[in-house]
Each structure stands twice: as C-alpha cells, then as structure tokens.
Amino acid sequence: MKAFGYTQARDAADAVSLAHRTPGAGFIAGGTDLLNLMKDGVQRHDHLIDVNRLDLAAVTGTATGLHIGGLARMRQVAEHPAVRKGFPVLAQALLASASPQVRNMATIGGNLLQRTRCGYFRDTASACNKRAPGSGCPALAGWNRGHAVLGGSEHCIATHPSDLAVALTALDATVHVLGPGGPRRIPIGEFHLRPGDTPNVDTALRPAELITAVEVPNSRTATGSRYLKLRDRATFEFAVVSAAAALHLDGRTVRDVRLAFGGIATTPWRSPDAEAALRGRSLTVETISEAGRALVRDAVPRHDNGFKVELVQRALAELLNGMGGRR
Amino acid sequence: MPNPPHHANTHTRRTVLKSTTVAAASTALLPDAASGAASPAAANPGDVVRVTLSVNGRSRVVDVEPRVTLLDALRERLGLTGTKKGCDRGECGACTVLVDGERIKSCLTLAVMRRGSEITTVEGLADGDRLHPVQAAFIRHDAFQCGGCTSGQIMSAVACVREGHTGSEAEIREWMSGNLCRCACYQNIVAAVADAAREVRR
After folding, report:
1. Which of A174, A241, A308, B190 is spaced 20 to 30 Å from B123 by Cα?
2. How far apart (Å, rounded) are the C-alpha atoms in residues A159 and A161?
3. pLDDT number for residue A326
4. CB contact under 8 A, B109 and A48
C-alpha cells in the first residue's frame, strides 16, 4: 500500500468536516473491501478517516420500522431479534455473505459501498472504465461469465456484489447520509447508479458524505420476506444469481410484493414489471413464470453469461414456490 | 503454544524479525490517543504512530505507519509469527485472531485502528504448557498437514465453539468457511471442532 495519512474522527460531523477539507481523503470503517483495493492499487487515498469510534452502530426496532446505524456490523444486524422476526430477508442475505470473520468486521454502510468484483476492475494491468475512465471495458468482449445482463452500458457491465443491498431493495429501505451540506435521505433504489456514461460513479453519494444509517419500514411484505442465493460453491462466495422477495399473501392471492435481484445487473435490481405480473393475482406456476419473463424481458446476454437469463427465472420460481406458490 | 528456546548464536526466523522491530523506530512519533490525549489521533503520510495494543493479556507498544496491518504489526513488529500471512486479502483466514473476543481477519484491519483492543493470537491460547481444548483436539484428530492454515483454523474454531455454531457437521462447515485448507484436511478439522465443542461444554 502506498503511504497515507490517518485521522480518527470524533463524531460524524467531525468525520465529514475532515473529509471535506482533506484532499484525497476517504473513510475507513470495517476496511474489509477498502484495504484490499488499496493494497492492489485499485483505489488510492492520501488520507484515511477512521470512523469506527463514531456512535453510529446501534440497531433499533422502532414503531415504524428498523433503524440500522451505518457502523453496525453485519453479524450484529443478522443476529438482532427485530431483524430476524420482522425482516428475515435481511438476516438471510447477511448470513449468506462473506465469512464469519468478515461479518464481524464489515459495516452496513461499507457493505453498500463495496466495489464490484469484476476481475478487470480489480486488475490494474487491465483497462477498465470504472477504474480508469475512458480506458475501455475488456469484459464486453472478454470473460464475462460473472457480469450483468441488465442495467449495463457500452462502457461497463460489472455487477454490484452486495447481498445486503438486494435485500434492502426488496424492503424499500432509505439510506441516511450526512455531508458538508447537512443530512439527507436517499431511497435505496436511487442509491446505486447504473454505469451509463460514467461507470466510475457507483453511487449517489456526494463528496465527503458519510452513511449514518439505513432505515427499513415495517410492512407485511417485510415479515414474509426471503432470500435465495445461488453460488459456484456452497458458501463464502459471491452470488452468481440471487433473489429477494418480500411477499404479502392472502390465501394464494398476492396482496403486495417487492422483488429484487443480485448477480444479474449493474445495480441491486428491482423489477416492477415482475411484481406487476404477480400483484393482485394468484401465486401459481403460470403467474410466477410470467413474472420471470417480465424480469428478463430487456436482458442483454453476453458471450459467457447468457445462462443467467434462465437461471434467475428458475431462482425466482424456486424462491416463490417455497413461499407458498405450490399451495 | 510455547515458543521454542532461542539459542544464543543461531539466527532463527523469529530473532531476525525481532531485530527489524528495533530498526523500524522513527523520530516522527505521534502521541497515542488511547493514552488520553485530547485530540484524535492524526498522522500525515509517512508518519509513524505509536499504538498501544493489548496482546494476549500484555500491553504492547508498536511504532507503525498507518498503512501497517494488524497482521504485519503482530508478526513483524511484535515477533508473534504464530499468526500466518496467507493471501493477505481476507480470503484464506490464516491470519485469524480474536479482537475483543471476536474472530477477525487481521490482514484486513490496520494496527492503528485497533488501539486499546484486546487481541488474542494463537500464542495466547495455551495456559502455560496446557493446550487449549481446541489445540488439543486438532492434535488428537490430526487436523492438519502442512500447518499453514492451522493457527487461523484454531483461532476461528475457538470463536466458532464460543458462538455455539457447532450443532452439526454442516453447521461447523458453514461457520468455519472463512478458513481454507490447501491440504484439504477439512474432514479432520470438522471432527476436531466438534470434539473441542463437546470438551468445552463438559
């Protein structure tokens, strides 16, 4: 790693102010993604602001939902009784992520900000528009088995790797941030950005903004939520394809549903069309496969990743069948 | 595990590492925030910071640049080479240590971030010559070949047992998944963890 300066921030306002006035600064929380990127020279900072001592780690069940501090650790959230009871998809997605050691370290805020696992992005010998804008995207015509079939552009087709973000998308979460201009709230659906012409910009965060919390509203769909993650090995692996469903069933009728997917898109991917194919209708083999077709209608498969178009539909069917589709 | 005795005229890997510790000292020392200084710790690129860690129950001081990982501080500044450096990317688990009782990967955290933390390495498990039940179980079950991953496996297993994730072979495999073994001793590692869990609960 190249040399960098270091400051331990006292509180959130201090951290933001330091980041605002220190050139080349970045926040460090769990460090589990950032330090790898810095060791490999993929990401460079002249100064790290340590936010680990900030009082932002609490997880609280409130009257309206769940308040998760930006510095809450993955394990802490996964084990929290209010999460397990009211938001099972969240606990399941977290426990399907990383390893026990990393879940003790990595924070909720940091998880949302983790960078893509695209091999070209992480290899500084390769061109990459996300890492070095304008240098090209070798994945388009190269090895793209792990890449996106939805939400890509001619500049980037890298997937977002977070399971947590997929679950939070199905739960309609809101990200709270604090920046030099004060606090603001960003709906999870607007937090991660598609690559478009600026694949180097991953999120809606502005310079020096810090994630202070994630808020998840109570809902009937949240209580009946579930996560399915398909991997190349049984555990400790990123998703080839994943699906999160938040479902409110009345008998066999879908009162409400939110569906989100990982591994297939450049961002955590919500599919309003797939939801519309189910909402108000009976959960049957037919409506589930209709939802699957709606999900992949605009898919752009590449040389090695076409299998995901079929696989994600099967994942959705498997998930929904287990939630009452076969009754 | 007890350290082997050092012979006066023999340069072992440990003594070489210890002598480099002295050479790492620098003039640009900054005060340790944990010692009660009012302002938060701050360092410029290249500055050396004084960090006090509690390692295996002893207070230890290291002078390191902010970019030094906890793993490198343990091995190369404190000479605690029981903690192994495998991938240095958080994938293999060979560097697993306990921080404030929880297992973490010491290659993915900076020493400067762990001021005041209680760190337990494999050197701190045994009670004198009495091995920790997990260490003893690894020997009983022949749960290693080359040994490269073993201290990480043992540290992870200590936490796994304490967390109560040892209800079945499948559960042990899932909760030990952050530790890879290139020799593929998994069968015996799982048996050792299950046995150690029974031992600890007795």
Report:
1. B190
2. 6
3. 56
4. no
User: pLDDT per residue over A89-116, tens digit each?
Assistant: 999 999 999 999 999 999 999 999 999 9
pLDDT tens digit sequence for A148-163: 999 999 999 999 999 9
Residue A192 is assigned to a structural domain of this protein: no
CATH topology for B133-201? DNA polymerase; domain 1 (1.10.150)
> Across-strand partners of A246?
A225, A258
Q: At what angle do helices B186-201 and B133-140 cross, to 10 degrees?
A: 140
Cβ within 8 Å, pair A6-B42: yes
Within a domain: A93: no
Q: Bridge-partner residues for A60, per DSSP? A: A67
A48 contacts chain B (CB < 8 A): yes
Cβ contacts of B165 on chain A, cutoff 8 Å:
100
Residue B173 Cα, gap to closest chain A Cα (Å):
9
CATH number of the domain located at residue range(s) B13-124 in this protein = 3.10.20.30
Query: In angstroms, rounded to a whole number, what is the distance separating the alpha carbons of residues A206 and A210?
Result: 9
Chain B residues with CB under 8 Å of A52 CB are 113
- Residue A99's closest chain B neighbor by CA? B178
Helix, strand, or coil here: A309? helix
Residue A6, chain B, CB below 8 Å: the answer is yes
User: A219-246, pLDDT tens digit by residue?
Assistant: 999 999 999 999 999 999 999 999 999 9
CATH of the domain at A286: 3.30.390.50
What residues make up the domain containing A293?
223-325
Q: Residue B42: what pLDDT? A: 87
Reported confidence tier of residue B202, pLDDT bands at 50, 70, 90 = confident
C-alpha to C-alpha distance for A140 and A303, rounded to whole angstroms: 9
Considering the domain boundaries, does residue A136 fall inside one?
A: no
Single-letter amino acid code for the residue at A88: P
